[in-house]
Design brief:
Layout: H1 3-65, E1 74-76, H2 90-93, E2 103-108, E3 111-117, E4 126-132, H3 141-165, H4 168-178, H5 193-242, H6 247-275, E5 283-286, H7 287-304, E6 308-313, E7 317-320, H8 322-339, E8 345-353, E9 356-362, H9 382-389, H10 397-407, E10 411-416, E11 422-429
Parallel strand pairs: 6-8
Antiparallel strand pairs: 1-4, 2-3, 3-4, 5-7, 8-9, 9-11, 10-11
Amino acid sequence: MSLFLRIFLSFWLAMLLLAGSFLFLQGIFGDERLERADAVLQARAGTASVLWRDGGASAVHSWLQGALERRRLTLVDDAGNRAVPGLLPPPLREVLPREIKPGIERLGRGRMLLAAQLPDIEPRLYLVTEMHRGRLDRIPFWIRAVATILVFGLVSLALAHLLTRRLRPLRHAAQRMADGDLDVRVIQAGRDEIGALGDDFNLMAERLSDLLQAQRRLVRDVSHELRSPLARLRIALELAERSDDPRKAIGRIGKEADELERLTTEVLSLARLDSGQAGFDSRPLMLDELVARVVTDAEFEARASARSIRFSGEKTPVVGDAVLLRSAVENVLRNAIRYTPEGGEVAVTLGHENGMAVVRVCDAGPGLEESQLQTVFDPFSRAADARDRDSGGFGLGLAIARRAMRLHGGDIDARNRPEGGLEISLRLPLSGG
């Protein structure tokens, strides 16, 4: 069942139930009104009986004409003929004369004849009056029922159309998105829940578009990165086939295979981080001890290339995945070592800022253009690619570091140092901060 039909039926049934309840209560209170009117008429019949015995018809006639509310009453016999002089009140002219019985007689269309016998009077006389529940009650019930159903149906139809009208653009946009159009957006007027739903849809469409573009770019970049080592592998294989001593070519093949394996490993690591399947194992740890171990391991690589690392930091408790945090710091530090010239120094500091642990890694390399300071963290970014080309990287290390930091509720950024070089800062919440 469609949403429009559900809303329409819900409103329609609710209105019909409300109308039914109103009519039911009206019937209850209407009966009470009739009972009160009958009791008043009985009391007046007693008064009329006393007047009849004492003064006859003229006394009762004078009494009936003495007050406005009594002018709707008349005194009749069993056959419904007037027992006092004068004309019948207008409402009674349509129903009298007729056989009179004490009590309440329903005449139809909401009209009722009330009759009260005068006690101790012979022949029997009756004080009568007519009542009606209202003009609507004069209309036949089936006409009122059909009219009510139709009117409430039209009102419910209008309300359902009003509520679902603004959902149609969302539906059409969703269908276009399902057909592959990720550039579709919806324009919603108003700041209600449907407007917020439209904003969420636009945000979802934008993120899906970004993800698809990133996926396409990743496939394109991976294909580009694979092309060079595969071409070199093919050349090395041809040389090995032609050479009398293929050992040199085999060594080249092994090197290219290692490079392919490293590229595949980094791409898989990035994919696992993006998909949330990296096996996040969060537990309390001391970040200063973790960074110190990374620095110690990296010093071997730095010394081999005539570079040095200086580390200073304070006690820093955090909650996180030690493997992912080590990978993030290690990727940033190894990048800094690669871009620092021989004889240069890489500075690593660890401190606290506004409830965040901050690891800063500063190299003495060429730095980046201002426009590249954000894109350097994108997979296979041109900035990272240009810096990594001469150092054997693929432009994935900083992307992996950013994913790891964001999984910890932190972030990573880069800036050029005034004295030269690049400073990369990794931030994540302190334990209990």
